[in-house]
Amino acid sequence: MIDLPVTPTIDKERERIQTTEVPSHVPIIEQRVSEELTKEAEEAGYLERVEKEVELKKPVIGPQGQVLVTAPSAQQPKIVLPVSRQTYLNPKNWHLPVTMAIRWLFTWIKRIMKMYPGGTAFPNEPTT
Q1: Domain assignment of residue 100, given as a range
Q2: Is 42 or 5 the better-scoring residue by pLDDT?
Q3: Is 73 domain-assigned?
Q4: Region 52-74: what's the mean pLDDT?
Q5: Residue (of 110, 62, 59, 67) closest to 89 by Cα position
Q6: Is residue 106 packed enough to be buried (19+ CB in 10 Å), middle (13-18) or exposed (0-12)?
Q7: Predicted pLDDT at 98
């Protein structure tokens, strides 16, 4: 006759687990990689520094065929300036003192037009 080992019952197993002490916290040991080791790994080709922006050449398509991610495109804002072209181009308005609000506004408009070439329009004119 073969003697089989007796396995503990579920109750005995529970009792054994409950009596085993589990530490309330486990100490975390932090190990830093030395600069030398990092440089050696880079030279060997194991590591590569990536310091450039990732650019998508084509959109990422999901399993059902939908577009998941596309490359961001810079949008040029269309700015409608607060004065008409006629008022802006009138030389009399440009020779007013800077303390006058209209002169300040024209200087601001000129700056905006330089910042966004082709992206500004006067009121009642189509934007290009």
Answers
A1: 82-121
A2: 42
A3: no
A4: 80
A5: 110
A6: buried
A7: 72
Is residue 95 in some structural domain?
Answer: yes
Domain total of the chain: 1
Q: Are strands 79-80 and 120-121 parallel, antiparallel or unpaired?
A: parallel
CB atoms within 10 A of CB 50: 7
DSSP state of 118: T
Instruction: Give one DSSP letter per residue of 55-95, joined into a string.
Output: --SS-EE-TTS-EEE----PPPP-EE-SS-HHHHH-HHHHT
Quick check: is 51 in a domain? Answer: no
User: What is the maximal distance between C-alpha atoms in the chain?
Assistant: 120
Q: Is 8 inside a domain boundary?
A: no
* pTM more than 0.85: no
pLDDT in tens, 69-90: 887 777 777 788 888 888 888 8
Amino acid at residue number 23: P
Q: Is residue 122 within 8 Å of 83, Cβ to Cβ? A: yes
Return the number of other C-beta atoms located less than 10 Å from residue 116's C-beta: 13
**Surface-to-core class of residue 51, CB atoms within 10 Å of its CB (0-12 exposed, 13-18 middle, 19+ buried):** exposed
